[in-house]
Amino acid sequence: MILGVGPIGATPLGAFPQDLSARIRNGTETIKLSVSGIIIPEKRVEEGLLLRSTSAVWTEIAQKLGADWSVAYQLSPDNWEEIVAGAFNKSGYKVILTPRSGDHGRDVIATKSGVGCIKIIGSVKAYRPGNLVSYDDVRALLGVMSGERDVSKGIITTTSDFPPNIEKDPYIAPFLPTRLELMNSARLQSWLAEIQNNNSEASSSNGGLA
Fold this sequence. Notes:
alpha+beta; Trna Endonuclease, Chain: A, domain 1; globular; two-stranded antiparallel sheet
């Protein structure tokens, strides 16, 4: 794996182009980043790539998305998996980003240990407006959850939305919201903003060291 920014990791990790942040803030260029541009990997494990942390690029993208959601549609599906994985990481989870193929419907695996321990499997759907996540996609994740017995919860995240009244479907409704969450574009934007706000407050309370 090439650690760097760009389609083939042309710029080494930690050596981002000087104008990258400005280009993201100004929205003057489609954002195209390798996995190592958004998240910082720890190591490869059996289920995929274990995250160590997020990079400054993750923060820049999250800030831009908070101000202008149209940026969401400049990002690739791979970028979105990295952004969601990074969001769980910033929320205190141990996170594994699964391989691009053979992931059994799981794009992200997020776990917390200790009292109230939890294991979440996440499916990320980077769709344009009007392209709704299907009932079959939701039921497919429920099927994965039934086969993977140690899973506490499934979360489907999309940059678009879900069909109207999906929460009333008799095969889906019993799992909402404690076993299954459906996070549409509005909730996703709000979640990223909340993470940004919480991390900013933590940084301020620790003298900028968080």
